[in-house]
Amino acid sequence: MALMGIQLVVSLLAASIMQRMAPHYSFARWLLCNGSLFRFKHPSEGELCALAGKQMPKQNKRDRRQNGENKPLTVPKDIDLHLEKAPVNAIDALVLRFFLEYQWLIDFAVYAMGVFLFTECYCSVVDATKEVNIGSIWCVLTVLFSLKTLHTLMSHYFRSEEGGERSVCLAFGFLSLLVAMLVLVVREDYLEFGLESGFSSLFDNFEVFARQQGYAEWSVPVTKLTLKLGLAAVCAYIGALLAFPGLRVAQSHLDAVQMNSHRPIIQILLHISFLSPVIILLLWVKPIARDFLANAPMGKTSITLVPSAVFDSVRLWIIVGLCVLRLALTRYHLQAYLNLSQKWVEQMKKEAGRIAAIDIQRKVTRVFCYLTVVTLQYLVPTLLILFSTLALKALGDFSWGMGAEETPGVTPALVIPTAAPVVSNSFDEDEEGVEDMEEDIQATVAHLSATFSALRAVLTPLFFRGFFAFLTWWVAACQVISSLFGIYFHQYLMHN
């Protein structure tokens, strides 16, 4: 296996560029600070007093405390308050909560996409079947880092003193556990993930690997049931992570549709983007997707819309297209979230009574302070689906083309290459140190090559097809559950 090849050089180059370019140019920073997003400034106490028709108190806060007065400045709620707009700039964004985590993850995803595109072009030109697909490793790392970012956000909710957010995460986690256990017992005739064949391939190859390591009487102690229970626990964890992102996407979708009420084309795209997880769910339901497209009923006859042999490639293209659409509509959702400040002010004007000026300022400022959190809640689930699909394509040996594909089989035997002995050809004592270093490098490369060979033989494309297909489907399912509940909550429960 060619380990030290051009793919590794490009991967190291991408990592170096990402590290050096981050302080100067960042795609994540450009996404928020390119001038297309507008935030609302909170009004000062003087502006609120002028709108209320009274003068600003001459005593400052220290004088009021010395006089025993600690009453906050209050104004009527029905004042004619209009918030001032200002474009979001880099200085404002640097103080936002979780901005550094947001910037690093989005930039890493961008460079991971670049490395993946290079490896796809490289593999289409050169026969790289014996090389390690570096692009797939970047995709897997992006999935893991996305889950870590969602875990950081969820831990913030768990540290909340109120406890309501913690209860929501736990409730969605238990609901996801029940749904996952039901999904995992559905037959492959209805949900065509390929988990059964993938697990069989994993067990068979691992048993061969154990025997070659000297464990002749080794039997796999982990049954499929135990593995499925562990997978169900992981699904519950992912469901808890995606609880609040789904609720937030539902609210921003409703606000974005209302904000673009005069633009019907944008509204249609917003609805398609919101329903994209539902479309992804249906793509793995065999009677609805593969069987219907391969034998679409047309009167007494049936026609073939998409041949079954190329359906996998079409499914990959559809998922990538839906993810690109959702990413392209990011600005509309973020601006709809920032407009919550003005929306809250308009709602306040309809109420009677008085309100403290500091409460108005806090409410307006709080919306902007959580901008990066909302951005992560919108982007990370989409990145999970996108890079899980790309990993499915790369590790599952799928093709972007429309040609027929053969189903990868189970590796019948596992042969681990051993490092060839290195013969010393030193002629004097000065060359011995250099040759010893070369021998160590060659031994290290041979050991890494043997390790990757063993992993590729145990974790076959058949296993990766089942695992990443299920992961992609499950992330979409969690988004559907949480988003639909969010629509019901914001449309009905909030108004009752």
Automatic annotation (TrEMBL):
Signal peptide residue numbers: 1-28
Keywords linked to the UniProt accession: Glycoprotein, Membrane, Signal, Transmembrane, Transmembrane helix
Domain of life where this protein originates: Eukaryota
GO CC field: membrane
Main location: membrane
Annotated transmembrane regions: 135-155, 167-186, 225-244, 265-285, 367-392, 462-489
Membrane topology annotation: Multi-pass membrane protein
Cell compartment(s), UniProt: Membrane
Family of this protein: Belongs to the TMEM161 family.
Name of the protein in question: Transmembrane protein 161A
Organism: Solea senegalensis (Senegalese sole)
